[in-house]
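quick q for whoever's on today - can somebody do inverse folding on this one?? i tried earlier but teh output was garbage lol. tokens:
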């Protein structure tokens, strides 16, 4: 059980912020180098409109706003900035240097960069298509490739092994049994025992490993939590600890 609401909300805010920065910087660059208010306005409108169109398409495809789709949108913003800049520059060149009218310059400018843009987009898609099945939704795991020095030939083709990755943590996390998590309209909570009294504390889950979850705040090292708390348990209930689970820090 993992509440991703805060993570997704932060990701949405990040995509909106990055999109606004990209549109602003692109418009400023076009205004400085091309000196065209019309081209600047087109870029400032087209980038947010393209993102909105992508969200509408995701809706009709049955996709939700999650970290994966938001990551794709963040990546698409960079591609969109590149393509829009090249298209605007090519159209501006045809109007000022070749003498095309607006309609002809727009059509010819877009057609001139259509093939290069298609090839670059397909190349980027090929990179991500190769790892599209790496994420396993059922086990919440991600397959990855790891380069390991093997100059002495200890590892041979077809050998299976177990590796342990030590990832440094910016902030320490605490392990709580999954059965201690209370999920209701107030969010994720745990019941902590202090002096024979139950206290309900709101927690934020940072990682779910099945039987245990890592929490980032709401409890501290050494707190005793109630496993499988009854529905009738409320703040201030008198309880007696019998083998209560002590919270310990994640390694």
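ok took a stab at it. sequence:
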């Amino acid at each position: 059980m993992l509440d991703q609401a805060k993570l997704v909300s932060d990701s949405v805010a990040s995509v909106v912020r990055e999109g606004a920065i990209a549109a602003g910087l692109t418009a400023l660059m076009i205004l400085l180098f091309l000196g065209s208010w019309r081209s600047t306005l087109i870029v400032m409108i087209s980038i947010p409109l393209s993102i909105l169109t992508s969200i509408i398409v995701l809706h009709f495809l049955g996709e939700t706003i999650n970290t994966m789709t938001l990551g794709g949108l963040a990546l698409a913003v960079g591609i969109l900035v590149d393509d829009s800049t090249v298209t605007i520059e090519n159209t501006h060149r045809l109007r000022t240097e070749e003498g095309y009218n607006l309609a002809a310059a727009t059509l010819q400018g877009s057609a001139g960069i259509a093939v290069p843009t298609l090839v670059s987009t397909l190349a980027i898609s090929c990179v991500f298509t190769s790892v599209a099945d790496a994420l396993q939704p059922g086990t919440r795991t991600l397959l990855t490739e790891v380069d390991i020095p093997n100059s002495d030939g200890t590892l041979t083709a077809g050998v299976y092994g177990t590796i342990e990755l030590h990832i440094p943590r910016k902030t320490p996390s605490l392990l709580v049994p999954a059965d201690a998590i209370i999920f209701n309209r107030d969010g994720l909570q745990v019941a902590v025992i202090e002096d024979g009294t139950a206290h309900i504390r709101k927690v934020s889950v940072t990682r779910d490993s099945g039987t245990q979850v890592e929490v980032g705040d709401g409890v501290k090292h050494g707190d005793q939590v109630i496993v499988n708390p009854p529905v009738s348990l409320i703040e201030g209930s008198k309880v007696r600890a019998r083998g209560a689970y002590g919270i310990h820090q994640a390694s």
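fwiw The first strand starts at residue 135 and ends at 136. also The chain has two domains: 5-138, 174-249. so keep that in mind when u check it
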